[in-house]
Every structure is written in C-alpha cells, then in structure tokens.
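Hi again,

Forgot to attach this to my earlier email, sorry! This is the prediction with pyridoxal-5'-phosphate bound. I've pasted everything inline since the attachment limit keeps bouncing my files.
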Amino acid sequence: MKYKIPIYQPLLDGNEKKYVNECLDSNWISSKGKFIKEFEDKFSEFLGVKYATGVSNGTTALHLAIETLGIGRGDEVIVPTFTYIASVSSIIYTGATPVFVDSLSSTWQMDPEDVKRKITPKTKAIMVVHLYGQMCEMDEIMKIANEYKLFVIEDCAEAFGSKYKNKYAGSFGNISSFSFYGNKTVTTGEGGMIVTNDYYLYDKAYHLKMHGVSRDREYWHDVIGYNYRMTNICAAIGLAQLEKADVHISLKRKLAVRYNELLKDLPVIPLKEAKGTINTFWMYSILVENVKLRNELREFLSGAGIETRPTFYPVHTMPMFTHQYQKFSVAEDIAIRGINLPSWPQIPDESVVEICNCIKEFFTKLKLI
Ligand SMILES: Cc1ncc(COP(=O)(O)O)c(C=O)c1O
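Structure tokens for the complex follow:
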C-alpha cells in the first residue's frame, strides 16, 4: 500500500548523486575505491573514535563485532529483549547464548539492575542497544562492565549522533556497530559500520570481513571469514550523508519538539529525551493506554493514508524463545502500547499537523478527550 505520509523517506539532497556518479565514471563500483576509506575516516572523526571499518549492513556489523571479541559457543551475552531481532540473531550466529533483560519504563532502554541480576560465570559481554535514538544508562552499564570485567558492545543502529553526557553513542563500548539502512539517520541504502578505539579489534574485524585473507599472500586465508564488505557506491552515498548529518539530526530533533507541542493535550505518552542525553529521535514514538487503542489508532491513521509502525515485539516472546517461559513486564508493556509516527527529517509541517489532527480526531470520536 502506498501511503500519503510514509513512515520514512531518506533525505538525499547533498552530494549523493555526484559521488555515486564518480564511482560509475571511474569504474570503482565494488568494495575497493576512494570513498570507502574517506567515509570510514570521516565517520570515526565525527564520533571521536580511533577506527572505523565499513560493512554490508548493521546485522553483519554486529555479528562481526561479537566474533571479533572472541565470543562464541558456551558464552553468554546480555541483551535487552526489547530490541530489533538483529541484536539477538547476531549473538546466535556466533554460537553464543543471548540472555535477555528488561527495559526501564522511563527511557525504554535496558535496565542496568536487571543486567546485574543476569550475570553468570558464562557472561562475556553486555550488548547495549540505544533504541529509537535514546541512549542507555551508560554510566551504570560501564560501571557494571568494569566491575565484572565484561565487554561492552554498543548496537547504535538507531542512535547515530545521539549523545550521553556529551559523548557520542558508539564511543563507550569496546566495539560498536551502526546500520545505514534506508530509514536510518545516515543511510547508504544497505550498509553498516564497526567502530572501536582498539587497534587489535579493528584489525581483526577488518580481516574477518575480508574472508580472512592474508595481508601479504594472495588467495591465502588464515581463518574462515566472511564477505561483509561495503561497496564504494554505498560509501559514496554515506560520505555525502555524513556531510549533512548535523542537518538531519537537527531536523529530526525539531520534528520531535513539534510533535510534543501538537500532542501535548492528547492521551499519548511520547518517549522523552532523558536527562543528560541528546536523543536524535530516529523514530518519534508514543504510548497509548492499551493494545486495543494502539491497534485501532494505527488502523485509523492508516485509513487516512498515514503509515505507522508498532514498537518492537520483545524477542523473548518469539517462537524461537518461548520454550523457556520468561516474563519482562516493562518490555511487554511498551511493546503492546507503542506506535512509531512518521519520522523523516524533511517531513513538511503540514503533514505533521495532519497526523496530529488525525490522532486528535481518533480520541475525540472515542470521547476520550
Ligand atoms: C537496533 C538495531 N540493530 C540492528 C539492526 C540491523 O541493521 P541492518 O538492517 O542494517 O542489518 C537494526 C536495523 O534496523 C536495528 O534497528
């Protein structure tokens, strides 16, 4: 179905076309070419981290990050159940076991107290996932990680440019991953990035993404690696996006302020910016009172040509994990009551007003306001 107001549209109004044409004109369309290094260098510079290596998507970035830390069979990785499936499937790919934790109702991010409760002698890492542009409680999580000597992997797919106490998402953990899917704040169509301050981890991730090929002997592979490379065309788009990243972020933050203003008298609870953080509002998300209202509101908006998304289903409720009954009250509650509203940076103000008027009409009809 084609919506009048889609949930997302990438903003491609910079040098994207120019740089892609340079790839085509120069024949450098595969995973070699000047844009890859340039994009990686500018990306690490933006975040204030030492190393970055481009990969084919955010899921391969996560898989590679976990494998690079030497995590595998017999190890446990703590991860929020309230996340996109890739955070969990990437742990499974390595043979390790995901151990779920609940979320905080205030920020929707992983609950540090629950992290502490889930640590066992098999725990090797905490995977923090900064959801919807909001960041996790990094002070508490880093304290736990230091105390128990655990690695920290940051899944920053939804948090490019977000900050916690003035430090960017991706600059806290041992190794961090980003996604550049078409609906991300910086997009390359499909793409991802691994960043780290540790040269050893960077070098290992690079080696693994290149099929483990020897650096000085062609077609000689010293480990079984992967083809997780990024193409020059993707990097060209990424570089152009990065040049305007601050503009994208500022537009998204302004959009959140506008939604807050227009929805303030309605019975919805928006995901707020937590104190001491900069939320880049990858998605503008709200909670309504219950699942029935959530589904009816989504249908009402859809009927008016407005596309929305439900918040993620907690992963522990999916068929692969239900053999073991687990209860995560906060995650389950957010999951059934949440809606993501159209969140593209360049969305016209008339459309935002139309969405909010439509939400108001819905609640008026039900005599809830
Ligand atoms: C939290 C999170 N992690 C990982 C990913 C995976 O990224 P990709 O779709 O680029 O593989 C996504 C994608 O949307 C995500 O939202």
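The pocket of pyridoxal-5'-phosphate is lined by residues 57-59, 62, 83-84, 86-87, 129, 155, 157-158, 179, 181, 192 (CB under 6 Å). The chain has a mean pLDDT of 98.

That should be everything now.

G.
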